[in-house]
TrEMBL record:
This is Alcohol dehydrogenase catalytic domain-containing protein. Keywords: Metal-binding, Oxidoreductase, Zinc. One of its GO terms (molecular function) is zinc ion binding. It comes from the Bacteria. SMART domains: PKS_ER. Its cofactor is Zn(2+). InterPro entries: ADH-like_C, ADH-like_N, ADH_Zn_CS, ER, GroES-like_sf, NAD(P)-bd_dom_sf, Zn_alcohol_dh. Pfam families: ADH_N, ADH_zinc_N. The lineage of its organism: Bacteria, Pseudomonadati, Pseudomonadota, Betaproteobacteria, Burkholderiales. Belongs to the zinc-containing alcohol dehydrogenase family.
């Protein structure tokens, strides 16, 4: 089968023929991938920017960690999943042996592995996954929307870490898929204002508005983000800022926007250190928190939400291409005139 792989710890990806994964083992499912999204981290992996060195030992590896597909076969002991059923796949596998897993805190597993990162993922026709990681999707759901469960769960997790509450004002820095997802989820959680900020990124800012952002700011026309925020909202500061840019300069913007006692959630992967005004941090009792990946409970909630309200997220998908045109899909993502690009194996 055709697979999009990271062959070595150096720039570049390859499309190549690889053997099919074979029959699922006990407790496993063979998933026939229907739709797999290209993530910003896949672009970083293609470029081989710093921050992904931990993957080197797993290469060559098939990428693709945001995918939906149909159950093609089930291994011994698998219950509750039927052949042909559409599922989203939680890509994280916890070791269940490290000190944190043994304590029951699998979110902090020290040896986590992930489909599409350190285990073969969804940029291929078939992938093997633990049955427990397969979340049934609504019957008849567009598989491309099923592939959005993963980024929406990342957005949900950032909202959970930021403790976003009813009636709050949330600023999301970065209008990419994670920013769009964080904005959508903030609205689901009852935030009354969600302001998404980008730089020369009008197409993706428009998508953010289409999925629920109440306001957007393009820094190209108004570099003073705080002044623009105040003009748009009539508020002095935001309750929560979720950073999803990966650009260290955005951290200073995020801190300036934050109220006394507010929470700045850093969700981007930054290739360089950022500076923080620690005097303000201390005196304003601001909190800076890292949010990474997602926890399993978010998956059931987001799968249900997408099933109930597919139109509320449809604008996030810009384009679907066959897997054979994966490299074209990557090129489109870099132009930032599209939001999520889906590959169909
Ligand atoms: Zn992703
Ligand atoms: Zn562990």
């Amino acid at each position: 089968m055709l697979a999009l792989r990271k062959p070595a710890p150096a720039p570049g990806l390859v499309l190549q023929d690889v053997p099919e994964p074979g029959d699922p083992g006990a407790g496993e499912v063979l998933v026939e991938v229907a739709a797999a999204g290209i993530c910003g981290s896949d672009l970083h992996l293609d470029d081989w920017t710093p921050g992904y060195e931990f993957m080197a030992g797993a290469m060559p590896v098939t990428l693709g960690h945001e995918f939906s597909g149909r159950v093609a076969a089930t291994g011994a002991g698998v219950q509750g999943l039927m052949r042909g059923q559409l599922v989203a796949v939680y890509p994280i596998l916890h070791c269940r042996q490290c000190v944190n897993c043994v304590r029951g805190d699998t979110a902090l597993c020290l040896n986590r592995r992930a489909l599409g990162v350190t285990l073969d993922g969804g940029f291929a026709r078939y992938v093997r996954a633990p049955a427990a990681n397969c979340i049934p999707l609504a019957q008849g759901l567009d598989p491309a929307l099923g592939a959005l469960v993963e980024p929406l769960c990342i957005g949900d997790h950032a909202n959970i870490v930021g403790e976003v509450k009813l009636g709050e004002t949330v600023v999301v820095l970065g209008p990419g898929t994670i920013g769009q997802a964080a904005a959508r989820v903030a609205r689901w959680r009852g935030a009354s204002r969600v302001v998404v900020v980008g730089l020369r990124d009008e197409a993706r800012l428009a998508t953010a508005r289409a999925v629920g952002a109440t306001h957007s700011i393009d820094l190209a026309s108004t570099p003073d983000v705080l002044a623009r925020f105040r003009a748009l909202t009539g508020l002095d500061h935001a309750d929560v800022v979720i950073e999803a840019t990966g650009h260290p300069a955005s951290i200073a913007d995020g801190q300036r926007l934050l109220k006394k006692g507010g929470i700045l959630v850093v969700a981007g992967i930054h290739a360089a250190p950022a500076s923080l005004d620690l005097v303000t941090l201390v005196r304003q009792r601001q909190q800076v928190r890292g949010a990474h990946s997602s926890l399993r409970p978010s998956w059931d909630v987001m799968a249900q939400r997408i099933g109930d309200e597919p139109e509320s997220v449809r604008a996030m998908v810009s384009l679907s291409l066959p897997l054979s045109e994966a490299l074209e899909g990557f090129a489109r993502c870099r132009k930032r005139d599209v939001s999520k690009v889906i590959l169909q194996p």
